[in-house]
Each structure stands twice: as structure tokens, then as C-alpha cells.
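Audit log entry. Action: structure prediction of a protein-small molecule complex. Ligand: NAI. The ligand was supplied as SMILES and no pocket hint was given, so placement is left entirely to the predictor. Protonation state taken as written. Sequence taken verbatim from the request; no trimming, no tag removal. Recorded inputs:
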Amino acid sequence: MSGHVAVLGAGSWGTAFAKVLADAGNEVTIWSRREQVAATIRSTGTNPDYLPGLRLPANVTATADAGKAVSGAWLVVLAVPSQTLRGNLAEWTGFLAPDATLVSLMKGIELGTTKRMSQVIVETAGVAADRVVVVSGPNLAPEIAAGQPAATVVACTDTDRATLVQNAVTTSYFRPYTNGDVIGTELGGAVKNVIALAYGIATAMRLGDNTKATLITRGLAETARLGVALGADPLTFAGLAGLGDLVATCTSPLSRNRTFGEHLGRGETLEQAQVATRQTAEGSRAAWPSVTWPGPTGWRCRSPSRSSGSATRASTPGWR
Ligand SMILES: NC(=O)C1=CN([C@@H]2O[C@H](COP(=O)(O)OP(=O)(O)OC[C@H]3O[C@@H](n4cnc5c(N)ncnc54)[C@H](O)[C@@H]3O)[C@@H](O)[C@H]2O)C=CC1
Ligand SMILES: O=C(CO)COP(=O)(O)O
């Protein structure tokens, strides 16, 4: 495919993914919410707030003008926090080329609707589901920015479109595998964030490896059961978008979700953990949906919601 590609979101994953796209031979324009970040990327080829040490290739530029970034792009990559996607995309939809492929990098579920990101994209942009591609796997942005070997899953209900995106993001250090299971690929990425919070809490509490192995194993079993109930292929959870991402996120000190959990495990409040983690920890929004996260009104709780479900029983059928 020729023409330029757009990455909307200049955080750590948007920026690292822009490097992957550029290394794969694409002309890339990053959209940043803040003009100052865009100007720094343009003038220095760096994004020090998110990925200090990364030098972006020359075929990456940046703008704070979404229309300019998206106009004429055949591939539009969405890399904003999950809870802001609907609002952001509503503003960008008018700029999208009629046949553009939309790629979701986000690993979250929309609060209030419990929709996956690809569903939010279909609804908000008014595009067919087969124009939306999900990229998810064990992809810690700083490692990929450093060119360390990694693999990912490129999921789409349209096999040809998945292959197109696979080709557009293949580099010597980044190996994408296609999959038709969009539901499982997205759920694996979203649910592992919550399990990584628990893993971080356990780590800070100095709990042992038996505990942590149990969290990963039972967490995966629960994710797979949820996924199957929602229409996913259980095998997806045994792959990169399931087990792979769960292991990377739980065990890496680079993970914001695990780090957030570690702060809580040391006895800090949600606010302290948020301030210390700085970047997007999607699992925190999912695990505490009743909390209103910082905004103009500061911190407060909506009516507390308590789960009425019983604890998972050892007799539950399925993976043990
Ligand atoms: N960082 C990573 O290693 C990976 C992240 N992801 C996923 O990618 C998504 C984006 O995460 P990151 O880039 O890591 O987050 P980040 O916290 O590094 O960056 C978020 C970006 O979104 C911008 N932003 C914040 N609020 C916004 C708003 N209201 N409207 C528009 N933009 C806004 C920020 O300015 C920043 O540029 C998340 O869903 C995350 O789970 C997926 C794989 C790897
Ligand atoms: O999704 C990720 C790795 O695959 C990144 O995890 P964190 O958002 O916890 O840093």
C-alpha cells in the first residue's frame, strides 16, 4: 500500500508503534494532543516525556492537527486511553478516508457500556466491523522502542485486511501473526491489566512464586471462560494475545498496571498510585469503575458498587 499512515496518540505505545511503522517503510504522522509534544517530535525526533532515549526515524513527523494527520491516510492507528476513545473518535471521523483501515492498539473496555474498543470504533466511526483491526500481544512499548524482538497478534474478521496490516508492521524485530478472533484478542489485552494489578499487589506484599503463578494460571482460566461466554475462541488465550501478554505484563517492572498494583501493595491510596504511575494504567479504571478519576473536580467515588458474585469455586469446569 502507498500513502501515509496516521497514529493518533503520542503516548508510549503510539510513539513506539510509529517507529515500527516507519521501520517497516511507511510515512508516518503522529497526532499529539499537545502541540509542544508534536513540535518536539518534529524538531528532535524524540518524545522524551514517554520514551526517553528513543530516536524516531526520519519518516516520522507529528502534528497537533488531527485533520492534517488523518487526511489521506490509508491506515489510521488509534492509541489513546480507552475511556477517551469515543470522544476523540467522534471529532476525527469526518477526516477519515472512506476506505481507511482503522487499527486499535488499546487494551481496555469502555466503562458504562462494557464495549470492546473495536465495537466503540464501529459505532462511533460508523464503519463496518471488517475495517477494524486489533493489534495486541506482549508489547511493552519501551522494549519495542529499543528494537528488542517481539511478536504480536493482528486480528480482523477480514483475513485480507489482517494480512495487509501484518505486512505494514513487519520489521526485523516485530513479528505480527494474524488471527480472525477479534473478541478474544481484545479481551486478552484488556483483562490481563486487572490481573497484573493483583500481581503487582502480591509482589509488593512479598508473596511467593506459588501465589504469583496461581494468579497467572487462574487469571488466564477466568479470562478464557469470560472470553468463551462472549464468543471468543479459547485457543486465542493460549497464544500471544492471552498468555503471552499476561506473562509480560505481570512479570515486567515496565508494566504500568503491575507498577500501579505495587504501589497499592505498599499501602498507598489509588490517588498516590495514579500519581506515581503517571501513564495510562487501563486496569485501574476497570477494577475501580465507581471511582471518578482525577479531573477538574478532583477525586471522589460514585455510589460504591459491590460485586454480588460468589468467589470462583474450585469445582468450576474448564482449565484448572
Ligand atoms: N505502553 C504500552 O506498553 C502499551 C500500551 N497499550 C495500550 O495502548 C493504549 C494507549 O496507551 P499508552 O500509549 O501506553 O498510554 P500513555 O499514557 O503512554 O499515553 C496516552 C496518550 O494519550 C493522550 N491522552 C490522554 N488523555 C487524552 C484525551 N482525553 N484525549 C486524547 N488523548 C489523550 C496522552 O496525552 C498520551 O499522549 C492503552 O489502551 C494501553 O493499554 C498496548 C500495548 C502496549
Ligand atoms: O500491554 C502492555 C504490554 O503488552 C503494556 O502494559 P502496561 O499498560 O501495564 O504497561
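Audit: result stored. Residues 53 and 121 are 32 Å apart (CA to CA). The beta strands are 4-8, 27-31, 60-63, 75-78, 101-104, 132-136, 150-155, 174-179, 291-292, 300-301.
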